[in-house]
């Protein structure tokens, strides 16, 4: 078989192949992995990137292994989280960590980081790269005896072969194709052709001697185009912006130091001035730094993708789906509030939960029930989503103070166990997120314009609290200035102009513009040569910009709606998207379930091929 893509998703698939092979396939497997980036880590987690870049998950919350929570047909094979693995590595005698199933060479810097790693540390991406490379080697070693795995550091550009034929995968730098019974596309996050707006802005910047960076992976962007001391507008306040601020600040020689308990930034003089805005106008929420204090999490059962899909007809996101999602998330929040902090509520959890179950989320009865909770402890999704709505500031300096106070309060809240109900909401959000992928893959969901994914990232996938402290220091030092909500940007007068209704009359004139977000990939605009060729040949079906795959086993669906017997696709570019290639332990992660489904389907195809002895056509 050929797997196009050799990052963590491919490694997870290899692990599931090894786990399921004893039941479904007799004999060795021959696997070819194709990827221009290193096997195991892939593009996003490769070692060769700035050591300043970190994960936005704690070490104890990162695992590549199935556990007892994962509901799948195949066997569960537990293994260490990143934090547990790091403890084992720390006791290894030299820079090569070896166990019975894997080998990873560690640089002295990564070895030192792993030795000092605590469960609640937010590790560097290089530390995660080492863990992923080790897991990859372990997954390879778990395949049936006599199996072989060959890695091709190149790019796949074409795929041919009907369902009744062996498949041929053509590589950019190889004359002869790879021939396989089965092909799995595990392409990860992909680039796209430039949008017309970005082409226009790039042309404008070139004409006027300005700097412009389109959406990109921050670690890959050419930041040398951003000159020191320049005023630069940045669109986006998510994780891409956090990485940008790191690389253009500390990455250019600036230093952080703590004075009287406050973190301060000492500029190197080579930083630009970043004027940053977005739709919300505030950074993503900090990751939590505490554990639950109340009863163990328990799904409310209000948001049930299967029950929704059993209804006839289309599903409207706002009318049919979001109220149930909101109720499920609120249930997780209030369960932790009532059981972990009973002194702050007026009634017992059992009584509240019974009434909560009967009421619609958007109903007067629910609002009356919430009166058992102090106003400051109630969950309000609309206020969370748009914290600046209805506020106008007289000056930019006034707005800077507001945002700094807002971020300071957020970091304090996400670091204080008194607010562990936020973690209850976060865990419920993860469960909802996994189920939502099933609805999105059904083709029956209407009216979801990307808001949900953005809200999820804003609430649950923000930076570590330390990164937000650094952002506050950069703001106090004048390296970062906040523009406001609903930021607008215009290219006129030979510069970039930017402002926000939050601060009427305040307009920034800048010599640079950076789009701090990932490219929005669609099948019609993909830059991936393999997907482009498949689309041109009618061998993939475009569903709302994504590669259509069968819901039950991720087989690639062609333009006529027919699943291909020998082709599978997994990843965020498909209709069965399950974004994270690794997961938080104990969360029945959809990626693990999907990997198991695909691995079992692949093994059945290979077993049938061996039994029937089909010849290539």
From TrEMBL:
FAD-dependent urate hydroxylase HpyO/Asp monooxygenase CreE-like FAD/NAD(P)-binding domain ranges (all copies): 2-189
Pfam families: NAD_binding_9 (PF13454)
SUPFAM superfamilies xref list: FAD/NAD(P)-binding domain (SSF51905)
Protein name, UniProt field: FAD/NAD(P)-binding protein
Biological source species: Saccharothrix hoggarensis
């Amino acid at each position: 078989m050929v797997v196009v893509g050799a990052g963590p998703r491919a490694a997870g698939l290899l692990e599931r192949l090894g786990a399921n092979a004893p039941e479904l396939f007799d004999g060795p497997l021959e696997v070819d992995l194709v990827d221009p980036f290193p096997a195991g880590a892939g593009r996003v987690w490769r070692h060769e990137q700035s050591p300043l870049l970190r994960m936005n998950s704690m070490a104890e919350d990162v695992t590549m292994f199935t556990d007892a929570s994962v509901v799948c047909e195949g066997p569960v094979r537990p293994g260490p989280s990143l934090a547990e693995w790091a403890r084992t590595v720390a006791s290894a005698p030299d820079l090569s960590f070896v166990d019975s199933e894997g080998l990873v060479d560690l640089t002295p810097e990564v070895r030192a980081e792993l030795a000092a790693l605590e469960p609640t540390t937010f590790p560097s991406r290089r530390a995660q790269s080492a863990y992923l490379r080790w897991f990859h080697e372990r997954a390879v070693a778990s395949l049936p005896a006599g199996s072989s795995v060959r890695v091709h550091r190149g790019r796949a550009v074409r795929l041919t072969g009907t369902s009744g034929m062996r498949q041929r995968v053509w590589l950019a730098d190889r004359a002869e194709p790879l021939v396989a019974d089965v092909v799995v596309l595990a392409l990860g996050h992909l680039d796209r052709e430039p949008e017309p707006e970005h082409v226009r802005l790039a042309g404008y910047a070139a004409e006027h001697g300005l700097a412009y960076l389109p959406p990109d992976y921050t670690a890959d962007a050419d930041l040398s185009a951003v000159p020191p001391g320049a005023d630069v507008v940045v669109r986006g306040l998510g994780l891409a912006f956090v990485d940008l601020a790191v690389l253009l600040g500390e990455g250019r020689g600036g230093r952080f130091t703590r004075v009287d308990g406050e973190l301060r930034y000492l500029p190197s003089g080579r930083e630009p001035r970043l004027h940053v805005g977005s739709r919300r106008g505030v950074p993503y929420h900090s990751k939590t730094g505490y554990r639950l204090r109340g009863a163990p999490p328990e799904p409310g059962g209000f948001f049930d993708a299967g029950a929704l899909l059993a209804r006839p007809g289309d599903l409207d996101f706002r009318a049919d789906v979001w109220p149930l999602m909101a109720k499920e998330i609120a249930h997780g929040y209030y369960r932790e509030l009532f059981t972990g902090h009973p002194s702050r509520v007026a009634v017992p959890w059992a009584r509240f939960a019974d009434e909560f179950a009967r009421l619609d989320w958007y109903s007067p009865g629910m609002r009356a029930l919430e009166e058992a909770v102090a106003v400051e402890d109630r969950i309000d999704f609309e206020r969370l989503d748009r914290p600046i709505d209805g506020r106008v500031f007289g000056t930019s300096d006034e707005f800077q103070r507001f945002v700094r106070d807002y971020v300071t309060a957020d970091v304090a809240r996400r670091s204080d166990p008194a607010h562990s109900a936020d973690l209850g909401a976060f865990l419920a959000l993860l469960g909802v997120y996994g189920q939502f992928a099933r609805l999105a893959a059904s083709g029956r969901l209407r009216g979801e314009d990307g808001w949900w994914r953005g809200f999820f990232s804003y609430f649950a996938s923000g930076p570590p609290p330390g990164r937000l402290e650094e952002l506050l220091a950069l703001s106090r030092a004048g390296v970062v200035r906040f523009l406001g909500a609903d930021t607008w940007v215009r290219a006129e007068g030979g510069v970039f102009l930017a402002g926000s209704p939050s601060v009427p009359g305040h307009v920034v004139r800048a010599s640079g513009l950076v789009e701090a977000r990932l490219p929005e990939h669609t099948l019609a605009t993909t830059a991936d040569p393999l997907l482009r060729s498949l689309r041109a040949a009618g061998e993939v079906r475009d569903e709302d910009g994504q590669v259509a795959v069968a819901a039950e086993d991720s087989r690639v669906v062609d333009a006529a709606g027919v699943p291909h017997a020998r082709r599978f696709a997994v990843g965020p570019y498909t209709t069965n998207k399950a974004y994270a290639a690794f997961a938080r332990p104990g969360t029945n992660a959809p990626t693990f379930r999907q990997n198991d489904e695909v691995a079992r389907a692949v093994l059945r195809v290979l077993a049938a091929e061996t039994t029937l002895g089909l010849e290539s056509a």
